[in-house]
Specification:
Elements (H helix, E strand, L loop, with lengths): L2 H6 L1 H9 L18 H11 L11 H11 L10 H13 L3 H10 L4 H6 L2 H15 L35 H6 L4 H13 L5 H15 L3 H12 L4 H21 L9 H14 L3 H13 L6 H4 L14 H13 L24 H12 L6 H18 L7 H9 L10 H13 L5 H8 L9 H8 L6 H16 L10 H9 L31 H21 L11 H6 L3 H20 L1
Helix pairs in contact: 3-4, 4-5, 6-8, 8-10, 10-13, 12-13, 13-14, 14-15, 15-17, 19-21, 23-24, 24-26, 24-28
Length: 589
């Protein structure tokens, strides 16, 4: 070892002094040297007076190597550690891109970088630059990230390449690993100057950088796991899970800071990655706060093959709907326990998110009436989609439908479509199950077209068909302002069902598009004879069903409708008069 190297490196002096004196050459080994060959060569060049080149890519390795060799001011003034610190403070920390690159390079030397304060100082520098003018930042992700403007070492801006992308800070930070990104975003949020919507857009940019192909990656990992790389596949999935849970902990507390669609995409990824229940529950609560913005396609969250036989995770949607309805009720005195269970987070959440959960559990926020009307339409569209799942249990279908209060559905046309689809896909439902399914349907809220379809729907229970026929005939009798021609007993019956005989029926809802095979095939108004024949067919079917259920003594159990048919003649005359009124009205037209 030559003298210039020993004169500047205290560690080498100590090693040589401890070695026995000998005339032979000695080989000094540095097994725990933190940096590579390039960093050691840089230190050696400095000792021999050779010019060295420093930049944001090698400053961290050079600083760690100089610290390891103890090239400090104690052994010689103006040593390498001092010069590297001057370069780091005056150049690296003043440049935006230099701070980003240097921070990312600390991943190779995490412990050394933390002890030397390189990581924390880079994070502070980045956060301070973002906090200077947060209101002037536009985080549009539509521009290319290739054209950037870096601040040079002397602080002057490069004039040759002017920046065209105004979303520079969020897109540059998206290159950071999740641990460093999380710490930097916490520093930016703690500054209190950056609007929550800009924080939310920055998180969406980061998620679009790392999560768009998550489902395909997990699928590939599962295929690899079936061969021999199960440990590697599990490690990759664990990293993605940590990334997702970190993003959830960074979500701003303000309503509308991120879109409902983005939250539901995170929830889909959480299901695929089997994220913690606390992360899923937090996403469900946030989605519930702005559920009226959701789309039906966003709510179709797939289930994992090994977790359920159904295509979609109906339980998490049910949790979202329950959270949405709880907004109008008195808040509990303590945060509610998650139905999905409680698991320990792999990383601690920020103080802001903990405060947000506590405030949300105690805040008495009420979902507006208009938002409930919108959510009702969304839920009915969702029911039409999940009804096509042959493995969907009837209880879950009904549970989803019943979460929405009755007043939120101005009409039941979309709900009837969902019920009709479920009956087609599940033809093996018995009579009691079909009755249970149709109890959620209010025939008074069906449009004329829906009633015409339901009156001919052989899959519906007999009671529903009778109710539909009755209300359809009653409305036909009142068409054209002919309320006076309606018999008094019919009008009294309509009033008893909260129906205004003078009020026209509402139009058919067209908010949800249904495939051709699921649409109502109604060629036109059917004559009373066709309706009567349909009713007779239903009565015959009901008689056959009742004959199949015989008591041990051979006596058949009379059905409720058979008891209804066994009433005195006056109700029958009332029903026949109702049909005759409709017949006369159709003849006049």
């Amino acid at each position: 070892m030559q003298f210039p190297m020993l004169s500047k490196c205290l560690r080498l002096q100590m090693i040589c002094s401890e070695s026995p004196e000998t005339s032979q050459q000695q080989i000094i080994q540095l097994p725990d040297f933190p940096s590579g060959i390039e960093a050691f060569e840089l230190c050696a060049k400095f000792c021999y007076g050779i010019t060295i080149t420093l930049n944001s890519y090698n400053i961290v390795s050079a600083r760690c190597a100089a610290e390891y060799l103890q090239m400090t001011e104690d052994i010689e003034k103006g040593n390498l550690v001092y010069k590297l610190e001057v370069f780091f403070k005056s150049c690296i920390l003043h440049g935006w891109k230099d701070s980003i690159v240097t921070l990312q390079s600390t991943k190779s030397f995490p412990l050394w970088s933390e002890d030397l304060g390189i990581t924390s100082r880079c994070i502070e520098a980045i956060a301070s630059k973002v906090l200077k003018h947060p209101s002037k930042l536009n985080l549009s992700h539509s521009h290319s990230r290739r054209v950037r403007d870096d601040i040079s070492c002397n602080g002057a801006e490069s004039q040759r390449h002017k920046p065209t992308n105004k979303g520079w800070w969020a897109e540059d930070m998206a290159e950071l690993s999740i641990d460093l990104y999380w710490r930097t975003m916490i520093a930016i949020k703690s500054g209190g100057k950056t609007p929550s919507n800009l924080i939310g857009e920055a998180l969406q940019i980061y998620a679009s950088r790392w999560l768009p192909k998550i489902s395909r990656k997990v699928k590939a990992n599962k295929e690899a796991a079936s061969d021999s790389d199960s440990d590697l596949a599990g490690e990759v999935t664990s990293k993605h899970r940590l990334l997702l849970e970190s993003l959830v902990s960074l979500l701003p507390s303000g309503k509308g800071a991120v879109s409902c669609s983005f939250l539901l995409k995170l929830l889909k990824a959480a299901n695929i990655l089997n994220a913690s229940s606390s992360s899923k529950m937090e996403l469900a609560r946030r989605v519930a706060l702005q559920l009226e913005e959701a789309r039906v396609s966003d709510l179709l969250i797939p289930t994992l093959p090994h977790s359920s036989d159904t295509l979609y995770d109906v339980d998490i949607v049910l949790t979202i709907l329950e959270q949405f309805m709880l907004q109008g009720q008195s808040p509990p005195t303590s945060p509610p326990r998650s139905k999905l269970g409680l698991e320990r987070r792999r990383r601690s959440r920020s103080t802001e998110n903990i405060d947000f959960e506590f405030q949300e559990s105690r805040r008495s926020s009420s979902a507006s009436h208009s938002s409930k009307l919108k959510v009702a339409k969304i839920v009915d569209g969702y029911l039409q989609e999940i009804a096509r799942d042959i493995n969907l249990p009837l209880s879950k279908f009904i549970a989803i439908a019943e979460t929405i209060p009755d007043f939120s559905r101005l009409d039941h046309d979309d709900l009837y479509r969902a019920i009709d689809i479920y009956l087609k896909v599940h033809p093996d439902l018995n009579k009691s199950e079909r009755k249970r399914l149709c109890r959620i349907l209010d025939c008074k809220k069906l449009s004329v077209e829906a009633c015409m379809h339901a009156a001919q729907n052989e899959k519906l229970p007999l009671r529903v068909v009778v109710q539909v026929l009755f209300f359809e005939q009653a409305r036909a009798a009142t068409a054209g302002g002919k309320v006076a021609e309606l018999p008094s007993n019919i009008k009294a019956l309509l009033v008893s069902h909260n129906i205004d005989p003078s009020r026209p029926s509402g139009p058919l809802s067209t908010t949800t598009s249904i495939p051709a095979d699921d649409q109502w095939s109604v060629s036109g108004p059917k004559s009373p004879k066709s309706r009567i024949s349909t009713l007779r067919m239903k009565l015959a079917e009901d008689d056959d069903l009742d004959e199949n259920y015989m008591n041990p003594d051979g006596m058949g159990r009379p059905s409720k409708f058979r008891a209804f048919c066994a009433l005195p003649t006056r109700p029958k005359k009332m029903f026949s008069k109702l049909l005759s009124i409709n017949r006369s009205a159709s003849e006049k037209n």
